[in-house]
Predict the 3D structure of the following.
Amino acid sequence: MFSGYHSPTSCPSCHKRSLMQIRPALPFRSRLLTAAVVIGCGQFLSACSTASDSFSRTASGPFNTLDGAAPLVIGHRGLPGLYPEETRASYENAADAGADSLEMDLHMTKDCVLVARHNPWLSDNTNIAEVAKTNAAVANRKRTVPGVLVDVKYPAIAANGPVRYLSDLTNPNDQKSVLKSLIVDGEDHTGDWSISDFTMAELRQWIGGTTYDARDQRPTELNGKLPILSFQEVIDIAKAKSAATGRIITTYPESKNPIWNNAQAIANGCGAPGGHPFEEAFLKALKDNDLNRKDAPVFVQSFDPASLKYLRSIGLKSKVVQLVDGNGMDFKTGETIFITDKPNTFVSGRPYSWTVAGDPRPFGAVLTPAGLAEVKTYADGIGPWKPQAMSLTIASLQDASSKGTLADVNTIAPTSLISNAHKAGLFVHIFTFRNEAKYLAGAYKGDPAAEYLAFYRAGVDGVFTDFTPAAVAARKVFLKEVER
């Protein structure tokens, strides 16, 4: 999943513009509610004697969530605010801190194993660049062949963004040519290493996970010291922590960059040309772990509607979440920016499958009443970017020539999105909450709890967070408010 408010340190394609901050390029509720309410229940629930008592009370309580239950805390890549992301320490500590769900991004290795890693290019969330200095086998796998530009199929007008995008299919007559370049959903990562060039065993043996967002402000002593995990290992962590804590802890896997992952997998011999080996492996893993049922402790997420629809078509029964991205904020109007004249349009402005298919609509189309109704035909919830549910504006901005930053935001107000989604029968899980000041709107005055409380009060059904302890603590405050 992408990263909340993007900054140049989190993505090379970030850009600042006047009036907006540009981004580059996140149920099983009845039992899960025990996790949401029972933690420390003796401190703030006057009639909290058992898990079943707490569920009965909360489910009928005055929450503005879709099902009346308390909002979920989703450990986004585990607990990356304190540990290298998507590692065992990150996930185990998130569970211990009270996370209701463990979120991960999935890709496919060279030997067809689903692996948990935020991006398929490895230099920004592993120690691979350091390893390559002394390991020739790793150094030699850096991808250095440039991609090729492809004309868009939709009308080539400014309102639709750039008229050409990069592709890794450098030889249309050779499907394996995608293994030479590193272009992911139109984004150029030439000169980096691809996760699909390593087997699962090689990733474990050679490479360790690191911090990613706000890496200059987060602990780094464990960087490179903790191995990469497979999807199965994260599932096993959730099962073990559920047993140890007496809470049901779900997993929240993402079908990440599915077009890219399928092309890489086919080139690596993981499936037949024209197939979907990535989604098929995804569904098989769910079935193998008894997670392919509506009440299973899992949420399947993706930014790409085509991937989710395909999973449904081949038999996915689990809960599904349509993620919704964006490229920036207009601080004058509070509206989300989707289409720009930069390549980030292909990453965060619209689902990549729409670009490939010649569909010029932006992600914003998903957020309209008609779009939400369409989502309801294949999904159970949406995962929007924070500003899409909470408008951020700067009252002093007068015109388009004025400048403003996130730190200047002095007015926040819920949009109609949460209400509209609930009317459509969809729950809303918001991404991504972080403690660092640079990710907080000025109106929150540097207090992460103030941001959580604003969203909890607005009726959000769940929050993706890099700091589970902060989200859980804010939820306790919110529950005390409700009890009054």
